[in-house]
Structure formats: structure tokens, C-alpha cells
Amino acid sequence: MIRLITPDDTAALIALAKDTISFKPNELEELGKMFSDYFNSNSDDICITDEDNGLVGVAYCTPEHMTNGTWNLLLIAIHPNYQGQGRGTALLRQVEQTLTRRGERILLVETSGLPSFERTRAFYRKCSYDEEARIRDFYDVGDDQIVYRKVLANPLN
């Protein structure tokens, strides 16, 4: 069941990110701050989870500053035991539909160019995202940032 996250989900979502994406301690700390800010502000951010006898997935996106209708998917993760079942696609589609209903225009996704992230990049391509940019050595020497872009169907046009 896909639903909005609650403050009680925070610890489980951080554990999910740690287990799924192998976040480093400083990245987990930043993720905790991101969730805290989400709950302690009136932000437009979207954070949803997939629940199946526990939290098995999460997606988080935020508007890009100083743009008109451009959003960035900062996090999407599915527990390894639940990958390959369409859950990631369902979470991503829910984010896209929510943004489209709001009249937003573009969703960006950033990921690593390392070979170990090929499955992630294939997922975005399968979901109709186009590679828009590559920033060499962004994350570290030899670890490029790859930016994917999808134009959202805007019902207001």
C-alpha cells in the first residue's frame, strides 16, 4: 500500500536506505535531517512509502529552487527482497501523477555512473527517463553524476 510517510516511519526509512543503497553514515545523517525538515515545515515536498507488513520502499522528491515546475527525485529505494515486483515503478508513477495533478512540468533524477548502478539507470530508462547530462567525477574521481529527465504530462495545457 502506497501512502504518505509519518514521523513514526523515520527510523525504518533510514534503515531501508542503509540496507538498500548502502548509504554512508554522513549520508544517513543528511537523510534524517531531510525527513525532519519534511515534518517540521510546510514544504511542498512529496515523500511516500510502500508498506507491506513493514516499510519496503520510499520515494522523496522536492522542487528545484528558482525554477518553474521542475522537481528532483532525491531518493527512491525498494528493499532488495521486494525488488523486481513493480514496486519501484509504482512509487515513481505515484510521484509523477501527484506532480502532474499539481501542474508541475519536469522531474529530474540524479544517479551514479558507476557500473554497479547500471540496474538503477536501466530502471529510469525503462520508466521513460532520458539521460540529460553527465557531470564527470561529480561524486568522486571516476564516479560521474548522470541526470535523467522526464517531461510530465501536464493536464493544464
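The above is record 1. Record 2 follows with the same two-line structure.
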Amino acid sequence: MTQPTDCKREEFIENNIGLAHSCANRFKGRGIEYDDLFQAACFGLVKAYDAFDADRGVMFSTYAVPVILGEVKQLFRDGGTVKVSRALKDIARKANAERERIISSGGEEPSVTELAQMVGCGVEMLTEAICAARAPISLTVSDDEGVRELEISVMAEDERVAELLSLKDAVEKLEETEKTILFERYLKNSTQSRTASLLNTTQVQISRKEKRIIEKLKVLLK
């Protein structure tokens, strides 16, 4: 088994995710869903990584297992509710600090990928940290018309899932060209000009269609 000094943080966590599964499996069938057990175990794995001292002369697994089990046991004491770990709070705090530092120095809005690299974690882990910390998320799109930013508050998990499912259903009702525009503009962060080139049309047409798509989604989501 690798030690924390052998590879990067995210890679190490992924390589040792089996420890989280192993610890979570010990508590299966005791009244808490496995996904919640595993999430608590993952919190413990990250916590163990951050606190591990290789100079103590012990294997990481020897140190980590009690820490992971401690997080899972805490889950039972909390009545089955997964609390936000200090590790995730710390990631969210660092990411927000980096974003503020870049913007205050006159830099451009950093992407989620760039922020993840700055704080030393994966995109998925940063996204989870932001959601868990209930921090506001800024969605930024740069195009020929300038920069647009939409700030939203993260909802509780059940509300967020319901909203995402509603949005998914609404998107499925769009025409294929509309789906492509939505994908290029808001997921790939392509400019209107690049999207227009892809669809063999003009930037003005894309701008008009995009506005109609947004209005269409608003109606479908009511």
C-alpha cells in the first residue's frame, strides 16, 4: 500500500478508497444506508490523510483505520446524519480564499478545475466541499457580450436532487439543437462565436436562440 508521500493527495485517496469501503462494510445492516456509511468513511479517510505523519514509522492503513471507524461510529451517534467534515470545510474555505485573492488582484474568474488544482484536490471533491459547506456558487460564462454571472445558494441535498431531476426532465424536452447550445455554452463554457461555428450559424443567431432556450426552460420548470 502506498504512503501519503508517494503520490498526490487526490491520487492517494483514490488508491486507498478500499479502506473506506472495508470500514463501511463492517456496519452494513445496522439501520443506516451504505452510501451514508461510505460517505462518513471517506470523510475519515481524508481526515486521516491530512493528519498522518510518516515520521511516526507506521503504515498509513494502521493509522487510518481507527480514524475512519471513528467517523462511521460518529455517524451512528448523530442519528445517521452525515455532518460536514472539517476537511471539506477547509477545502471550501481555501477555495474561496484563492478565488478572492485572484479576483482582488485583477485576475479573471478561476474555473472549478483551476481552483481544485490550487487547493490540491480533485474537481469532484471541491464540488462536494462547496455543496457540503452550503457556500454560494457563482456560475460564470464569458462570451462576445461580456461576462455574465449567476450566484445561487446551494440547497439541502433532497431539494437539490429534486431540482436537478426537474431540470433534467426539462432539458430532455428541448430540441437537439437547443440541447447542443446549452451543452456548449453552460457545460463546456464555449463562446457564442465558437458555438455558432460548430452549428454553422452566426453569433447573433446563437444569442437569440440562447435567450429563447432560457425562457423555455423557465416555463418548463414552473
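The first strand starts at residue 137 and ends at 143.
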